[in-house]
Amino acid sequence: MATHAMSAMSARAGSFALGNRSASRSAGRCRKASRPVGRPLSTVVRAAAKPRDDQPENWELKYLYDGGCTVCNSLVKLLKSKKGHEKIWFEDISDPKYSPDKNEGITFEEAMATIHVIKSKDANVMTGMEALTALYDITGMGWLFKLAKLPVLSSAAEIAYKVVSKNRQAMGGAADGLLALGRINMEEKGEGSCTDLEGECREKPPPVDEEAEEAARAAEERRAKIAAEKEAEAAKTGGGPTAMNKNPAATSSGGLENAAREKAPTTSGSLSDRRNILGVYDMRRSKSDARALRAAPVDTETGELIDELITIPLDDSELSTVAAALTSIIKHFAWQGNVGIALPAVRVDTTEEAVNETMDSFDDEVRNMSSSMIAMEDGYAAEKLVTSGKYEEMERLRAEEKRKREKALKAKSGSARLNAPLASQSAEISTAADSRQSRLEVENYLKNAVGRDVVVMSGPEATGYGEMNFRAEKLATGTTICVCLGKTAGIALFDNGILAHNPADVERQLATFNYPRWANAELPREENTPTEEQWKRWAARVEHYLMRIEAVAKPDNFIIAGRGSATFKYWSKYITNLKTPFYNAEQGMNAAVLGAGKGASEILTLRRDTARVRAAIGHAKGLSPQKLDEEQLSAVFDELDEDNSGRLSLEELAVGINRLNVKLTEEEIKELFIEMDYEDTGDINKREFIAWWKDSIGSSGVEIIHTMNEYEQVLDDAEGTDQLTVLMVGVTYCKPCKAFSKKYQDFAERFNGARFIKVFGNENKDMTVLCRDELKVKSTPTFYFFRNKEQVHMHTGANAGKFEKFILENVKEGEPGYGSERQFEDPVEDPKKGEKKASPAR
Predict the structure, then answer these.
(1) What is the residue-wise DSSP string for 519-584?
(2) Is 146 exposed, middle or buried (0-12, 13-18, 19+ CB in 10 A)?
(3) 0.70 exceeded by pTM
(4) From CA 306, how far away is CA 299, in angstroms rounded?
(5) What does pLDDT average to in each consecutive run of 10 residues of the chain (842 residues)?
């Protein structure tokens, strides 16, 4: 359905030569087409074209010019100001109606390579200097060619041409001579017509990345080889787990059956593919505190890695460093699809306020000493350490911990952390229920850095996804908590297999794992041949931690993951007081990579469902979802709250979604319910509902779209709302696009009743298909305006006056910015050129 919509909205014919250069080396020209191979800059004879209905009388020369370039339009205005211009037919190759068939077969790309003039008398095509000479001769400016040969004028005219052409309107006819001289000089040197940052992109695309192409070929061969080896091994073993299967538990008799799964073809992924996801885990490297990214593409249906597992060391923990390493990983796998990345969880502070009053059996002995857990640490634990000769070490560790805590609190106080550049912040995420917005900020940074849809989760969450979906031994239904143990600890809570928010009380217990009493109870390393006493101390620390979580969350199962799972057999036997069953992770160190892929797949599906529900509510209110305010959202909540209790139950949410004609499965509705219930109370209050809505919408003035699904959702959101949507299409190497970016953001703030979005046509396959095949973009930047889902305007070029004029013509009375004072001058070219109204999209 969306494909038909975009086809109907297509504003141009021709090809947007962007993106996949491995498929076509000639792609990616973004207006500046290369000179046709073997074509001389001289007269070319072609078969006569059919007569045109719109051709002027008595024309002698037809000049094919680029109307999207302000410099080229300056030359047109110069020619039109001279006697004899009436004998020239000016044909704009950027016009959507331009047809090679009506212009001696000259394609858009050929016309962009150099100047073309067609003679009426014999239909001969002149190019280059010969064409320019003909135009100047017919307008009485042929004498300028002699001046252009003078060395003094030659170089000066070239510079003047580029500067004066954009300001000709203000300078008047005095600039005509310089324009004409400069254009002659540039044509003699074989240069393009302009380098105008207020026009359209004239930059050649970057050279083909041979290293990337080689990586793509190697990845394709590697995946095909792995798939063939697995298939051969499966044939030998009768289809059971294979030696090549890195995750045999996923296909064993207790897990998901091979027979129930459809084999996926080898793939480099796509942004519409939710089965094959690149899983990435930010982990601590063995025997050190250094971090590294561990990654592999994951088949989220079978739980198998479809390519090799690689590890990329990180120089530091900054988000920009993670983004750079992630880019390298994507390049290595030639990955075109979605990415799931598991980042370390933010360490919970160990202040007195961070821990509640819940006691476990370990603390019962000292209950009468103080109700403060910190006081307990000063009393009972300190006494134990004194008798063991570890008191001085405890004091040193306590002082160091206090300094770290105070530094962390200072960094987080007020808006200090929010104002810090995101790129330089540590790549960590909170697992608290109210952390959704901070996660989205990290996701958006990584999305824009790598040009793929990126889903961010914590390490424990990713590990939990891997274990819950791919372990052979199925667990009892109910609440399962995945606990990652190592130098630090982290948890993720799953409600019948669905990731839930960590309740505040459970989140506070994270602090207890690093109490000073455990200074001499670190996880032993097997290669150091630990004593039984060392294993017992570690087991006591783990038991204390799990019992505190047990007292608060009352889970049905624990899964032990992380480095602690590798030595589970040595220490688990010493845990005797825990009432909740606890199990060792089955997926080993690959669990988080598998889970990052599986989690991303499920979260992307949840977001699709969220967008559908959001759009349906917006349509019911006749407004774009982005424009619903708190009062309107409160009214929506009240409509869903059938019993007027002030809280939504799962049943009420399901009824409301069904009433909106949005078809979701019971599991999808449950996932959506848990996503809204971030306080984990079993129902949804109005505050939670409004916070969920705002977080899912986002607050950026300009949204960068990375996938076809996101683009389609933008149009779906606008349907029936009468909202103006503005789309800017660019490419990453387009200088005019970059120059206009700040102005585009300013326009978004000025006309904030409209929704402003941006895409880069060479970012990934989805965007290349959208821009080249659906929108038929020829040049960048190109701007499209939509009302509801109907395209109402299109123009090209990075001229602020041009954009301002058109948006003022398209905003309606009552919308922000309507009738506002002009801030930019009109462009040199006719501002009406390029406007096109299309038929309704659907």
Answers:
(1) TT-PPPPGGG---HHHHHHHHHHHHHHHHHHHHHH--SEEEEESGGGGGHHHHGGG--S--S-EEE
(2) exposed
(3) no
(4) 6
(5) 35 38 33 38 41 71 79 78 89 80 83 83 85 84 60 46 43 49 54 53 64 84 86 72 39 32 58 87 73 93 91 89 93 91 75 44 37 37 44 54 51 39 77 70 87 90 92 82 88 88 74 78 88 93 90 90 91 93 88 93 86 80 75 90 92 89 86 83 88 72 84 86 91 81 88 90 84 87 92 91 93 90 73 42 38
